[in-house]
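Predict the assembly for these two chains.
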Amino acid sequence: MVSRADRGVIAEWWWTVDKTLLAALIFLLVGGVILSLGGSPAVAERLGYDSFHFVSRHVIFFIPTVVVLVATSFLTPRLARRISLILLVGMVSLCVMTLLIGVQVNGSRRWMDVAGFSLQPSEFLKPAFIVVCAWLFTENARNADVPGNLFATLLLGIVCVLLIAQPDFGQTMLIGISWAIVFFLAGMPWTWILVVAVAAVVGVIGAYTTIPHVAGRIDSFLGSGGSDSFQIETALASIVNGGWLGVGPGEGTVKRILPDSHTDFIFAVAAEEFGIVVCVGLVAVFGFVVIRGLSRALRNEDAFGRVAAAGLVSLFGIQSVINMAVNLHLMPSKGMTLPFISYGGSSMLAIAFGMGLVLALTRRQPQTGHIRRRAVPRSGVPNPA
Amino acid sequence: MRVTTSEAGGGIAAATVTAEPAWVAPAIPDAADAGRAGRIRVMLIGGLFLLVYSVIAGRLIMLGFDDVVPRATWADPEAAIAAARPDLLDRNGEILATDIKTSSLYAEPRNIIDVDEAAFAINSVLPELSVPWLQNRLEGNRGFVWLKREITPRQQEAIHNLGIPGIGFLTENQRFYPGGPVASHLLGAVNVDNQGIAGIEMYIDRNGLAELQQYGFTGQGTSLEPVRLSIDLRVQHILRDELQNAMELYSAIAAAGVILDIHTGEVLAMSSLPDFDPNQPAQALDPDRLNRVTAGVYELGSVFKTLTLAMGLDSGLVNLNNIFDASHPLRIGGFSIGDFHGKNRPLTAEEVFIYSSNIGAGRMALVVGPQGQQEFFRRMGLMDRVPGELPERALPLMPSSRWGDLTTVTAAFGHGFSVTPFHLAVATAALMNGGILVEPTFFPRDEATALARGHRVVSEETSQEMRYLFRLNSTAGSGRRADVDGYLVGGKTGTAEKIVNGAYSGSLVLNSYLAAFPMDDPQYVVLIVLDEPKALPGGGTTAAYNAGPTVSAVIRRSAPLLGVAPRFAPFDGSTVAAFQL
């Protein structure tokens, strides 16, 4: 075993990282591989690939994902901040490039061909964006001379414009919500909360009235027959078909006609084959990851670390919530992957990076909090431990 | 253990790594407060997530209690569009509805090489598909999109000859009704996937066909046993034709009619105008085109006196010679009930019927009383939906207030209580056939089956007396214009004032004629309802002037086809003399 007396990098990491959270995340990744065996062959056959095309690619991505997850968790907050800043700049430029030279898939330009793999810069942009925003906001809160709030808002504007140009409304929405959560956690004043809430309502109404496909999806959710009801109906049918205990691995039948059964609707496939009981368990694991991540973030005395970690956990949580809610027809259809479960190399690696950052930022760190609170009276002079 | 170790160990690094904010900030209490506020916000977010995850888990558990619905479309998506339906035949084997094979045009956008070229080419054959719409549809990488369902063979050939890659045809079954609107309300309609959405078509789906489709037994090439209906297409045509004539002649806004076999309960014909062409089922959505026979409820007016008489006679409290005083209006509950064709003298029960006296009918109903009346109406099936196969069957509209004496009096002449015309026709069949209430049906049935499923509602004698009254009304009462030589038609008129803005209108009426024939051995009940007929020059607006002659025309044309032989009065001197003249 690793000795506590060892002061090396590995030992330090081993004794400070949240191993329970790490285990839960790896559990989800393994679950993703298992569910991919059920969810993707039908799609692969439909697209004319070998049956296990997506399964093998999923497995291939599993290794680098775990590596990224663990490697990122070694970062110190300072390093995490710097890498995120570099990544953000890089990904914003890549987003600009996708608009110019990207590959068009399903009518949007989101993908870059990089060394034989297609890369989706917007996936990597999200965690980096959250970390940088957390830094800007907390810096602003700490020292009002730093125009962090302004920069973060400008940054949001730039990223949103890039994403809408692709167009990718799902990611835009996610970025917007994450930005708001980070700002909220960093101590957004209540007047601002009101402004953001109004902006969100205006944004949704605006999207409904100006973008036909958004209107279609909302209409079909509300039951006035839109174009996308087939997916949702089929997803519900497959969940109901599975029942409590599922029809058994690989035995699903409704999944065969379910579009995107390996990505956006993997949850429905899981329900059909493994049953509702397993799905409730999956929900519980996601819930555990989010609550565990948030409570670890809570212990962080450093505002930046706390806000960034909580923001990243929220991103993970929101993405999982939206995906599952769409599968269960609790909200309008919105293409969103289920973190770590859905197929998608960019998405897996990017989420691994994000959750790696959470692990890094929630590592037990030398803190001054309780010492200060206990030893230093309110009027007292700071006295370093 | 671990906690203390790590924190103690980390203490060394504290000054360099994380302590920095606390030391830089000039006021520590503020920073600590901000930290506490920040923590509360993290907890808030956590609570929110907990809530949302619980909702998701709850929804999953809810879905666990749902029933599994098997669907054939899972096995074969094409089965859904190609679903076959059985032919519908009339009682003589004439085709009422059948499946024809049509082609539907689809595209595989990912295999289309030149979208613009394809769009313009398709537009040249199908101009209703606009070029921008086609371009939008054919753009992208999708594997399958419909362009147009159910195109004609000529259009198919023209598109085929264009030779566009990525365009194809699927054969599907399309429902076709050769008679167009002739039996529209009865047959109903199907949707584009050949599933019954109204009428008998829907009934067939609900009674086995939908299951067959689910399990994939209705794919292409399957032939299903035809379904025979009780309808006689020829009589159906006559009924609709005469209703159309009447609507035109009397400028009515709507007309409805039904012909019922009183012994078997079979519906021979049923028509409601305005109707629709089931080949264009979208027309049926117009609320004005509802099936007035089974789905519309009306205060039918004096035809209801038929039931009042039957009720009185069957109760044993009234006989045909009882006298009811109709010399002055009947005052009840602050209202005054008068007569339309007022005789202003005491009337016998049969005079109450043939002169259609509201006062007399009201008094007769009071003899039986509210309890007895309700019990009788329930026995005659007027309080529930008419049983039967059509999905479109309305509930009767009960009086909103307490069923007291006033209600009893108004219901005695068909007001304050709304039923469908079908209710009345079915009840009348029981009064004519010897007293057995038979469930109506749209499928062939013999008399023995009908009797086995029916039950007695009035006595044989009451039925005899009702036949006598019906015939009497045609010879001496308001029904003379409905009689047909040789067919011994009997019946009762009804002229109901329509309610306009909450009050009875003096000028707008709903007229009906309830008939049966031949009265010496009744076989069929015919009910005709005309909505807002107008008077002809020299005529009136009452039912005797419009609904009566319409019934007469229907019976004159259809009785020979229904196998009722005309029996003319034996030759006597006067007839011979008439011939000689």
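Chain B has 20 helices and 18 strands. Residues 2-65 of chain B form one domain.
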